């Protein structure tokens, strides 16, 4: 994951006072990450989360494997499954289920399809926020309807971890050990930290 930010401190007489430092931890494509984290068997399968719209059921989010086969967010589910069915015919010699529910004698089930559950996404993110108290006593979620970013006040904390780069590396490694990809942004304000984590390299 990428890391953006720089250490800030001011020498005032006999002590160092630290400026506020906010760390934003963004979990890209969080609904898919959360689902695959809960169901590791889906890691090697195209995954689609659907939601109901005025046009019927459409793709709300999809995994990297689904995107590689042409699926995009907001596609009608019928169009997405047709794309995957065509891709399946090109890669297998026998029939397979295009929808989840178990193979029907073919070599593999191509697609896992579920309805998006935003409450489950939020609950899992809250659990991660609690887990992040090992890195900061002040942890919160971004204030949006569908949060996918954790916000940590790390003012004065990073020296305990060997400095900001080492701190960022430890956090990234800890998330990766849980099979979760993150992007990090560190700045003096919440808004700037959030903007930085959106600009860092893909995980």
Structure explained in plain terms:
The protein is an alpha+beta fold and 203 residues long. Helix content is 33%, strand content 22%. The strands form three sheets. A four-stranded antiparallel beta sheet has the order 7-8-3-9, with helices on both faces. The chain has a three-stranded mixed beta sheet with strand order 5-4-6. A hairpin with a 7-residue loop joins strand 7 (138-141) and strand 8 (149-153). Helix 1 packs across helix 4. The radius of gyration is 21 Å and the shape is elongated. The chain starts with 8 loop residues before the first strand and ends with a helix.
Task: Summarize this entry quickly.
With 203 residues, this protein is α+β, with helices and mostly antiparallel strands. The chain has helices at residues 30-38, 64-68, 77-91, 118-131, 164-177, 190-199, and strands at 9-12, 15-18, 22-26, 47-53, 56-62, 112-115, 138-141, 149-153, 183-187.
Q: So what's the overall shape?
A: elongated
Q: Topology as H/E string?
A: EEEHEEHHEHEEHEH
Q: What is the number of beta strands?
A: 9
Outline the biggest β-sheet: 4 strands, antiparallel
**DSSP summary: helix tally:** 6
What structural class do the secondary elements suggest? alpha+beta
Distance between the termini: 5 Å
Strand content: 15-25%
| Average pLDDT metric | 83
Uncertain spans:
1-14, 93-98, 101-107, 199-203
Kindly report the spatial arrangement of strands forming the biggest sheet: 7-8-3-9
Radius of gyration, in Å, reads 21 Å
What share of the residues lie within helices?
A: 25-40%
